[in-house]
Fold:
Amino acid sequence: MQKQLMQITKKKDIALDTVEMVLANKYISKYAVPGQFLHLLVPGQMLRRPISIADVDKESETVTIIFKILGAGTKQLATCQVGEAIDALGPNGNGFPLDMKRDSTAVLIGGGIGVPPLYYLAKKLHEQEVNLFAVLGFQTKVHVFYEEKFQQLAQTIIVTNDGSYGKTGLVTDVLDNFTKPINRYYTCGPMPMLSAVKRQLVNVEGYISLEERMGCGVGACFACVIPTDHQGGYKKICQDGPVFSAKEVQLQ
Ligand code: FES
Structure:
C-alpha cells in the first residue's frame, strides 16, 4: 500500500445515484487484485473513504471504482471532474483467492453496491477458464448496472426486489437453479444477504467480502470488528479482510 495521486480519466452515471469513475495510476493498477479497495481522500473531506476496486486495466494503467451517492463524502466525490487528481492509499486489504482450476464452476453473488468488486474477480476467473454464474441483486430496475459486462463473462441472472427487471425477489431465490454443481461461491453485499447466502450454500466453499461494513478503513474506528468462528476471536474487516472464508466469520 502506498500513498498515490490518481487522476480521473472518465466519469459516468451508470444507474440511479451510482457513479463509475476511472482513475489512472501506474503503481495501483500494477499491484491491485480483485477484492481489494482504495482509501480515497475526497477533496474537502477530513477522513479517507474506503471504496472497492471494480476493475483494473493494466495496459492503460487505470483502476475503475463504482460508488453510490449516499452521504457527504460520496456526494463530494461525484462532483470531481475528469482531469482532477485524488489522493489515494492502495491497493488495500486481502482480496479474493483465485486458486480455481480450469473448468471448475463458481457463482458470484452480489447485492447492490456489493456488485463492483465481483466484476474484476469475474474477469480474472474467466481468464482462468472457470465456468461462471453471476447472480446480481438490485432494489429496482433503475439501480441495475453492469449487466452486459457480466454477461460477457458469466451466465448472469439479474434479480430486483420489486420485480421491475429480471427475476423478482432476492438473490437467494435463484441459487438453486444452476445447471452445474458449484465448486465455490464468492459474495459481496449487505449483511442480511451475506448471511442468507452462507446459510443456503452451507455445503459449498465460500468467500465473503464484508467491505460494506467498513468505516475509517485503517483500523482506528472499530466499526468493522466481526466475530470469528474461533472462540472469542475478533477480526477487523479493514485490516484482516475485507475478504474472509465463509467458515471463518460469524455473520449476524
Ligand atoms: Fe475503522 Fe476497520 S474500518 S477499524
